[in-house]
Design brief:
Number of strands: 4
Helix content: 55-70%
InterPro entries: EF-hand-dom_pair, EF_Hand_1_Ca_BS, EF_hand_dom, Tic20
Protein name: EF-hand domain-containing protein
Region (Disordered): 43-66
Largest sheet: 2 strands, antiparallel
Coiled coil: 71-110
Structural class: mainly alpha
Order of helices and strands: HEEHEHHHEHHHHHHHHHHH
Number of helices: 16
Subcellular location: Plastid, Chloroplast membrane
């Protein structure tokens, strides 16, 4: 009996429990009715959705909190930057006000010093009197740096007398300085228009620089005008007055004279052609008469030395055409360049002694290179000069030539 009871009791309990799941109260009484199955399903589904949303909200809460914290930190930093910027602006405005106040005070002191007659305005004479003292001290310091000693008062006066206008502060510059600050155009500076002494000196130095630049431009324009006048077709031959510089276009005679200076480097460089003439007698037969003349000229005592100094003197003569002067200077530079290989050969022979013969092939090749380079340079210079152009494209030699027009244009600039 006990086994049966143990089996029936659980079954009854299971049945009662499953039945009550579909029974809902309909009122206050004890009557019960079965619930709607669809309503039960919806309630179960709503409960599941509620639990899912709660889990989503709980999982999204940390990310939202992190974003909120980052936004708050960024806002705090932005506020701090705005405060810093406002502080900087306030400091800048305060500094500007301080500088403006100091400028007004310095201008007031300078005006009181310059206004010698106390009429409430500064004219040209008073401005010059007030600035010539500082200008003289500055000029004396510059002169002392150049001379390496303190100049005497007489030396300073002599140098000032040699300046344009005989003064450190010409009237025209004083008038320009007044016009810079003269707001009402009366030719005078009132107290409200005046500036500190240092500012006046700085502005005056700028006016000096501007005046020098204008004078330089005027000189360049005058030179260009003279060159244009000489190059006019109706100008005829170039006429050079005493003391004038012959920088005009080269005539046919000038082009021919431009080739003569190269006799000097050829006479000194013909010794480097010994191997070429010996190794290739047939190929160099055409040049042997010229080589003989150059060797004969070289054999005359001090002939090349006299030619060297003569070219040096003539190349400084401004009445000789500029193209001829250029070629004279270039021939001198070529002749000087030939000294280096000769010195190297002499030192090598002295150091090696009898062993120097072992380097004969190298010495012959070097001599050939030197002579061929010399011939190429002379041929280029003569050929270019024949066209009326300056042969100033030789490496290094062109830049060393003081008559190079490219160098002079760079100097002018």
């Amino acid at each position: 009996m006990a086994p049966i009871t143990a089996t029936i009791v659980p079954l009854v309990t299971l049945f009662v429990g499953s039945t009550t799941a579909f029974v809902t109260p309909t009122g206050r009484g004890a009557s019960w009715s079965l619930a709607n199955p669809q309503h039960a399903v919806r309630s179960s589904t709503s409960a599941v959705a509620t639990r899912h949303n709660a889990r989503r909200r709980s999982s999204a809460t940390p990310a939202t909190s992190s974003l909120r914290m980052v936004s708050e930190v960024a806002e705090q930093r932005a506020a701090k930057l705005r405060e810093t910027a406002a502080a900087f602006r306030a400091e800048a405005a305060e500094l500007e006000q301080k500088q403006a106040r100091e400028r007004r005070e310095n201008a007031q002191r300078s005006f009181n010093t310059f206004d010698s007659n106390k009429d409430g305005s500064v004219d040209v004479a008073e401005l010059k009197a007030g600035l010539e003292g500082p200008l003289r001290r500055s000029f004396t310091k510059t002169l002392q740096a150049r001379m390496g000693r303190k100049p005497s008062k007489e030396e300073v006066d002599d140098r000032i007398a040699g300046l344009p206008g005989g003064t450190l502060f010409p009237d025209d510059l004083a008038l320009k300085l007044i016009q810079t600050y003269d707001q009402n155009g009366d030719g005078l500076l009132q107290q409200s228009e005046f500036a500190p002494t240092e500012e006046l000196r700085t502005r005056l130095e700028n006016l000096f620089s501007q005046q020098r630049e204008e004078e330089r431009v005027a000189r360049m324009e005058e030179r260009q005008r003279q060159m244009d006048d000489r190059m006019r077709p109706d100008a005829g031959t170039v006429v050079v007055s005493p003391g004038d510089v012959n920088d005009g276009p080269a005539t046919t005679a000038d082009k021919a004279l431009s080739a003569l200076p190269y006799v000097l480097p050829l006479a000194d460089g013909v010794v480097f052609a010994a191997h070429l003439f010996g190794a290739f007698p047939e190929q160099t037969a055409w040049a042997q008469p010229l080589a003989a003349v150059l060797l004969a000229l070289r054999s005359v005592p001090f002939a090349t030395l006299i030619g060297f100094f003569s070219l040096s003197i003539w190349s400084s003569n401004p009445q000789i055409n500029k193209l001829v002067r250029f070629n004279m200077q270039q021939a001198i530079n070529l002749d000087i360049a030939l000294i280096l290989p000769g010195v190297v050969g002499a030192i090598t022979g002295a150091v090696l002694g009898s062993d120097a013969s072992k380097l004969a092939p190298l010495a012959n090749a070097s001599s050939d290179v030197v002579f061929v380079a010399l011939l190429a340079a002379v041929a280029y210079s003569v050929g270019t000069s024949a066209t009326g152009s300056f042969p100033n494209k030789l490496p290094l030699l062109g830049r060393l030539n003081r008559e190079n027009p490219d160098n002079q244009e760079g100097g002018e600039e």
